[in-house]
């Protein structure tokens, strides 16, 4: 595999956990709820998946467990945000802090024991096409499933009736409630979906991308995924583009030294964070023209108010 | 019959006080359950966590060592939070403050004597302000989300610190440890009592709380800021500026966090190393909330959350429970606080038949 192919393949793999979390959060925010706790849910998902993997449950169950763990954590957020009408910023932060601590507790016994990571699919024929084969057909199954989620989420949000209801709730929960839609039940479903996706993203990170447990291994990917949603202006396809861009920065940091860039490794590590700020600035300038933010974002809804 | 909730017209002082107390009690109950599921005697571990550390004079002073940065930062952040400005990157502003203070301490010309500490203080204050100022500028100029920017800047500050202590600022006599040389004596705050680590930063924390009290209850600027953040349109109508609220909210928080960084470097740490804070900047957010953005509350909240740090260290030493339990407790506390606030702002009534 030559360097260009390695960079491309690495970029897609690095983008996958961020894309999973961002797609989930996108749906949550379209329903009018802001869950800042992505970092915590990803870490919990990563820790639980890793634990299942080293305990010999197999990788499929590790992914399922990671998704369920993220979902459970998001249920805690939902309880506070939907039932107790708590401030969503503060609740999300609490989830991020809680998840960081909990994942570190779960991961205490892991040491530096590696797990056998997810293998790339060996697609016969297609994978052997020169040039294109290694570029497009040598990823693991989760990468393909994640990529498939992009059109799926896009179609569901823009073309399906239930997606329309979700967006209506995000724009005006009062109107949706008046028409008779169960606002809080649908928001709960969206939050749980977001939690499962963040948990999956964390699981991909620990048992497919890295393969050993590192405390705080998300290293801000949850927050970058949150930025991706803003960057994408709540559109799934643009979330994909953004995730690939940020995946690219992550890989640039790995390859920077091989390429002989005369910069300290810390400067290269800072690139994804710096790029996030730049992207946020560019997008916030553009947003002046058309507002895509769901109108009720982060505003608690109380039926019968 | 259905239950419905309505806003309480008046929130009594008792209810306001009760919410944090209930949250603390619930955290204790759940914390005990957590210890129990981990296979420990819940009462013994809870005692070791919350009471043991503060039974001796040394423990009490260590509590103050941890409470001071929390209180200073939380007081600064609460100014922004009052205006709905979400600076959650105080950890990065603290880091920049510590770097600036250490830079002055290490590289300022010899012979400044009594001037060195004030210079370090000033450098830290400005560095913290500048780091938060980036987010303020971007929010005021382009409307960029300050939550995400302050957070990204925190990661960048951490990497800058890491580069400095491994690279250009590494102590040549330090056996290759990632740390700088110790601050010179003129750049070090001596403890109030040589037996303990508490420095004059305690008085500064109290001063900050006093200033916050003046600001929120006695000044027109405080009122203007709160309106500017809570109701930007109304504020604009009466001529208050939203941009003013953004700049004030972020700069005050950044300055406070920067100064907290100075007190860490000149006080208990005495040098820069790869890790200079156990997440004070993040925990201070909880302190501000637990303290309901009020000076008296921040004092109590700061002491309690400092206890989660010393308690976490204590159960690690005596029971081998990982110190990460501190973060779990802090998250739980904030969860319970947010839940209990529901009961102070709303009341549940029966409606229908």
Description of the molecule:
The complex is a heterodimer of chains A (305) and B (353). The model of chain A has no long low-confidence stretch (mean pLDDT 89). Chain A starts with a helix and ends in a 19-residue tail after the last helix. Chain A is mainly α. Helices cover 70% and strands 0% of the residues of chain A. Chain A has one domain (3-222). In chain A, helix 1 (3-30) packs antiparallel against helix 11. Chain A has helices at 3-30, 38-54, 59-83, 88-106, 132-136, 141-159, 161-171, 173-179, 183-210, 221-231, 236-256, 265-269, 271-286. By secondary structure, chain B is mainly alpha-helical. Chain B has helices at residues 13-37, 42-51, 57-82, 90-107, 116-142, 146-166, 201-218, 220-230, 232-237, 242-269, 280-290, 295-319, 325-345; strands at residues 2-7, 346-351. Chain B has one domain (2-351): ABC transporter involved in vitamin B12 uptake, BtuC. Chain B has a two-stranded antiparallel ribbon. Helix content of chain B is 70%, strand content 3%. At the A-B interface, helix 3, helix 4, helix 10, helix 12 and helix 13 of A face helix 6, helix 11 and helix 13 of B.
